[in-house]
Amino acid sequence: AQTIAPTPPSPLILSEPDTSPGPFEGPEKLLEVWFAPTPDALVGDHVDHGSPLSSHHATANGNGVSNCHSANGSSARRRAGVSSNGQPFQGLRTVPRAVWEEMLDIVKCKVLSVIEGDDLDSYLLSE
Amino acid sequence: SSLFVAPHVVILKTCGTTLNLLGLNRILEIAREYCGFSSVYRCFYSRKSFFFPERQQGPHRDWTEEVKFLDNVFGNAGSAYTVGPINRDNWLLYITGANPVALVPAGPERPLALPPPCTGPPDQTLEILMSHLTPAGAAPFFLPELPAGSPPESRSGHELGTDISAQLGIDTLFPKSETTLDSFGFEPCGYSANAVVGSGLNCNKGDGGYFTIHVTPEDGWSYASFECNVPLPLRANDPSGRPDMPSLIRRVVDIFQPNRLTITLFVSTGEDSPAAAAPATKVIGADLFDGAFTRKDRIIYEFEGYDLLFACFERR
Q1: Which of A89, A107, B2, B17 would you label with A18, given CA atoms 20 to 30 Å apart?
Q2: Rounded to 5 degrees, what are φ and ψ at A63?
């Protein structure tokens, strides 16, 4: 019989989650991924699907308090880059909230609330 | 924790034992799938040294593992740095190089598009990492003790966060007319806030930005962070109502009352004006806090396209 050596543990294999109420690690990990130096520099040949948030004003916190609102009440004054058809190019802001939530599941965070600003969207997260 | 999404940037800042880097590949997939982005212009990953590294999971268990993870993604196009004293408040940074990194071969229908060089307004990110908060500085971030027999706390997390923000003046760090603040108070303690700034009618393109605050006030590992990329005026009492950088730093430190703090300031230099960052990095001098703090370290890195200032202070 052939003996198969055990596979050495991968550094990415996660140990069991620590459920003890030990001290909380405050210092954050900060990841910034830039796809262009400015919004104007984005290649404007992508389909702009509009705002994924403007049609997604959920009230999920159970108290009737909207968890998604537009900065100063307007999403029409966005000043991001301009696409080839002259419309503001929203780039990553076209990604639906549910898609970001799926990514955040991997990270182990949940969305508490969202602000839709003129230039960017802000997601306040749990953890 | 916070996520910011601009048309061209994703910023993910997470605390605790979150698996921040494990989200990176999915972010790249999303950017490609929804926007056709096949290359990354820049990537920054940074963190202060952990208080409890043994509690971290996955690649975050060790800095070398985090670097290995990022090198695997970016094909060794990045550089990793340990900044500051390694026995105290060191800070860790991974940054990809000056050239955009092609992630995967683009399909024939979508040729690889490399972004043009930076020509826009300078990008400036200020981060203040504060620890060892005084009892007075930490107190507002605990739920108040109620008298025996009182009904339990009835405010929601958002209502509690709003009250804390008003009590401490967090909601007036920038003019209210151009700020939308979203804050949350956690039970039994802790606080997070995100704000978008610069959505007012009088703002010019590129004048906007965000700030974000996270607080863990428990004695023994108390910590607060403030991060901001809103363009700031060079002088105090600017007509815009925005604070200049020294004033903003002092206000933030007055709120959280740390005994130790680290300031990092990234300023893009641009190809045509490499000295543009000089005024910003010079404002964080030894006398920033009028003698209340001693500056322990001041380190400047000149990366291609960015200057980084790192400074540590301790309360006298």
Answers
A1: B2
A2: -115, 10
pLDDT of residue B1: 98
In a 13 Å sphere around the CA of B20, the CA atoms on its Cβ side amount to 29
Mean pLDDT over the full length of chain B: 89
Predicted local confidence at residue A86, as pLDDT: 61
The span from the CA of B191 to the CA of B256, in Å, is 12
Separation of CA A22 from chain center:
28
User: H or E segment at A115?
Assistant: strand A111-116
* Mean pLDDT (whole number) for B187-196: 96
User: Which of B6, B41, B113 lies nearest to residue A119, judging by beta carbons?
Assistant: B6
Residue with the two structure tokens 């820049």 = B42
- Chain B residue closest in CA terms to A102: B26
Whether A40 has a pLDDT exceeding 50, the answer reads yes
Question: Å from A72 to nearest chain B CA?
Answer: 7
Which residue from A minimizes the CA distance to B114?
Answer: A36
Residue A20 confidence (pLDDT) above 90: no
Token digits of residue A43: 């290649």
Least confident of A56-60, B67-71, B273-277, B307-311: A56-60
Reading the block at residue B48, the tokens are 């202060």
Classify the C-alpha dihedral B13-B293-B230-B89 as positive or negative: negative
Interface test with A, best of B24, B30, B33, B34 (most A CBs within 10 A): B34
Rounded to 10 deg, the angle between the A97-107 and B24-35 helix axes is 160
CB B50 within 8 A of CB B277: no
The kind and range of the H/E element at A106 are helix A97-107
What are the start-end ranges of the E strands in B119-240?
Answer: 124-133, 179-185, 191-197, 209-216, 223-228
Q: How many CB atoms lie within 10 A of CB B301?
A: 14
Q: Is pLDDT larger for residue A61 or for residue A6?
A: A6
Residue B24, by phi and psi: left (phi above 0), alpha (psi -120 to 50) or beta?
A: alpha
Which residue in this structure is represented by tokens 């994924």? Answer: A52
pLDDT tens profile B68-94: 999 999 987 899 999 999 988 899 999
Q: Which residues lie below 8 Å from residue B104, measured CB to CB, with a gap of 6+?
A: B32, B38
Q: What are phi and psi of B255, to 5 degrees?
A: -70, -45
* Structure token pair of residue B144: 């108040």
Distance of CA B91 to the CA centre of its chain: 13
